[in-house]
Amino acid sequence: MDVVTQKAMTKKSNLKSAGTKVSRGSKQWPPVKTVTSKRKQSSEQNRTTKSMSKVKPIVPPNFVENLFKQTRFSKKEIVGLCKLFKKLVAIYGAESTSSVAAMSSVVLITIPTQGFDRLMFREFLQIEFGIATEEILTDRIFCFFDQRNDGVIHEDEWITGLSVLLKGTQDERIKYTFTIYDLNNDGFITKEEIFSLLRNCLVKHPQDEDPDEGVRELVDIVLRKMDCDKDSKLSFEDFSTSVNKQSLLLEAFGQCLPSREMSEIFVNSINNMQ
Asked: I need a surface site. Which of 87, 198, 212, 274 has the fewest CB within 10 A?
């Protein structure tokens, strides 16, 4: 008898002595506990799969759809902007709070709201678009974006505002710049407002005895050129007519729009967001 056969016979006799029946082709079932644990595992996996199917996507479809209707961005660009917004907020150190009315009109609760505050937004304008203007202008741009007027630029406000800056029509951009320059929101850019804007953005020379005198002369020149109805202030009609005649006057009182090159770089970056 060869060694292999001898080993097989020994194994068979050992099984018989242990009271175990051996039959050719018989199926060896796993212990009951093993089967039960596998069933539990399978059940848990099914529950996990179902719960995962209920998890909301990072960018809700209705959020994208609404912004697609309100802005000039494509749906892909909106998704990219949402991802970029979260990254930038994290980079600039981002958490502000806003008071939100609860179900009862009497009780107010405070919930954390991610977004840009004024300082963070100013850094964003400078780093991403090269808009390094005086605080008076960056503050006005912030107010244009902050439609809720709660001191925070939220995700939807950010995307809506960028639509004007990056893809706005000529009329939209004229309306935007007029709003920025109308410092007191009274519907006119007054002589005093033009003086304040130009005084902040013009370089002063130490040798000038009265640096403001040159600013006042420039204000008079601007008014003669742009004040169509000669009432010593610029209405929206005055401003719009002047800009349509000479496009360089769009940012006559300070930079508040990104250059075409910077706009294209930014839009390309959001199209390539992973």
From this structure: 274
Average pLDDT of the residues in 205-232: 85
Residue 213 and residue 205 in contact, taking contact as beta carbons nearer than 8 Å = no
SS3 273: coil
3-state secondary structure of 153: strand
Q: Residue 208's pLDDT is what?
A: 61
Q: How far apart are CA 113 and CA 102, in angstroms?
A: 15
β-sheet bridge partners, residue 111: 98
DSSP annotation of 147 reads T
CB 102 within 8 A of CB 108: yes
Tell which residue, 208, 210, 202, has the closest CA to residue 253.
Answer: 202
Q: How confident is the model at residue 70 (pLDDT cuts 50, 70, 90)?
A: very high
Contact yes or no for 130/258 (Cβ under 8 A): yes
How confident is residue 204, by pLDDT bands cut at 50, 70 and 90? low
Tokens of 181: 């320059």
Length of the chain in terms of residues written: 274
Q: Are 161 and 240 in contact (CB under 8 A)?
A: no
Question: Whole-angstrom Cα distance, residue 194 to residue 45?
Answer: 67
Where b means 16+ CB within 10 Å and e means fewer, 148-161 reads eebebbbbbbbbbb
Please say whether the beta carbons of 121 and 148 come within 8 A. Answer: no
